[in-house]
UniProtKB/TrEMBL annotation:
InterPro entries: NMT1/THI5, SsuA/THI5, TAT_signal. It comes from Olsenella porci. Keywords: Signal. The lineage of its organism: Bacteria, Bacillati, Actinomycetota, Coriobacteriia, Coriobacteriales. Gene3D superfamilies: Periplasmic binding protein-like II. Residues 1-23 form the signal peptide. It holds the Pfam family NMT1. Residues 57-273 form the SsuA/THI5-like domain. This is Nitrate ABC transporter substrate-binding protein. PROSITE patterns: PROKAR_LIPOPROTEIN, TAT. GO terms for biological process: thiamine biosynthetic process.
């Protein structure tokens, strides 16, 4: 895998919440002690199906570290890492086929605002701030959103995505109607930019921009949060099934505790964490993984007091923006969809 595209997360499923299919991408490992053993002397562990949002990448490093280092096993958890074959992780988690997984604040918004809301909530922030933005060829001089005028933008044809582009272009004094839209199926934005399939694209700085650095590709990039604070939504997050949380709160706490240790390890030893991810998923480009991990080590916690913290006001601000722009089917409770009950200080 050379690049990871947010457009694929959305376009592959259309944010559909229908039938669910699974494709396994990792086996569980059990070792160490058991904080959740079923009885004295028991070695039985609680089985957790954990659904990734997409193919494995450095957003998930802490999960793989916690598994390899035995942090889950130490908590009495036997984790099975899977990825969705057709539907989103939200459908998997909401249906209970996965108890926990990786999601995003905007995905959770869609799940909660649908006519048939899913029982899903964020229980920790995997990355503290929105590290996405617009990348383009350096030669085109697209150094701010206004410069997207008269250039071709690669869209995934989703209302929230296009509303975000409209918002940032107009906030920069540009004319959104002058942005030319195309929809290109790509999982490597750098290659597509080189081939001039489009001029600019929404990417994650932690992967696509690092891929550009690895490939020595001359690029421009600006982040959404550099333009508008209300776009500093949580992406990605650790999400859980609400019913499972109510039924097994101690298991959820134990899972979050082990996951936190995994990400703390990735912060302290990014190269070692990168190696663990590469060993678990050998098809990944090890040079890109290390480059990405070096960047993300400062993003997992950033300015928060510790890994996983979700800020109530920041969460509510983004949900209010979705409501105000009528980007969800039904109005959201701006304080819904998240909890810090399972994250220990």
């Amino acid at each position: 895998m050379n690049s990871i595209s947010r457009r694929q997360f959305l376009a592959a499923s259309g944010l559909a919440l229908g039938s669910v299919a699974l494709a396994g991408c990792g086996a569980s490992a059990s070792k160490g002690g058991s904080a959740l053993d079923s009885g004295a002397g028991s070695t039985a562990k609680t089985k957790i199906t954990f659904c990734l949002d997409y193919t494995p990448n450095t957003n998930h490093t802490g999960i793989y570290v916690a598994k390899e280092k035995g942090y889950y096993a130490d908590e009495g958890i036997d984790i099975d890492i899977v990825q969705p074959a057709e539907d989103t992780a939200e459908a998997m988690i909401g249906s209970g086929q996965a108890q926990l997984g990786v999601s995003y604040q905007d995905y959770i918004a869609n799940a909660l605002a649908s006519d048939n809301p899913l029982p899903i909530q964020a229980v920790a922030a995997i990355i503290q701030h929105n590290t996405s933005g617009i990348m383009s060829r350096k030669e085109d001089g697209i150094t701010s959103a206004k410069h997207m005028e008269d250039h071709v933008y690669d869209t995934w044809n989703m209302p929230v995505e296009q509303a975000t582009i409209k918002d940032v272009v107009e906030a920069d004094g540009g004319d959104y109607s002058k942005v030319k839209m195309v929809s290109v199926s790509t999982d490597d934005e750098v290659t597509s930019l080189k081939n001039k399939q489009f001029d600019c694209v929404w990417v994650y700085e932690g992967w696509a921009v690092q891929n550009a650095i690895v490939q020595d590709f001359a690029y421009n990039y600006f982040s959404f949060i550099s333009i508008d604070d209300k776009l500093d939504f949580y992406t990605p997050v650790l999400a859980a099934n609400n019913d499972f949380c109510k039924k097994s709160p101690d298991v959820v706490k134990a899972f979050v505790r082990a996951t936190k240790k995994g990400y703390e390890y990735a912060v302290k030893d990014p190269d070692g964490a990168a190696q663990i991810l590469c060993d678990a998923v050998p098809e990944l480009d090890s040079k890109l993984v290390r480059q990405s991990q070096s960047y993300l080590k400062d993003q997992y916690v950033a300015d928060a007091k510790s890994w996983g913290v979700i800020d109530k006001d920041r969460w509510a601000t983004y949900f209010k923006w979705l409501n105000d722009n009528k980007l969800v089917n039904n109005q959201l409770d701006v304080n819904s969809g998240w909890t810090m009950d399972y994250l220990e200080a």
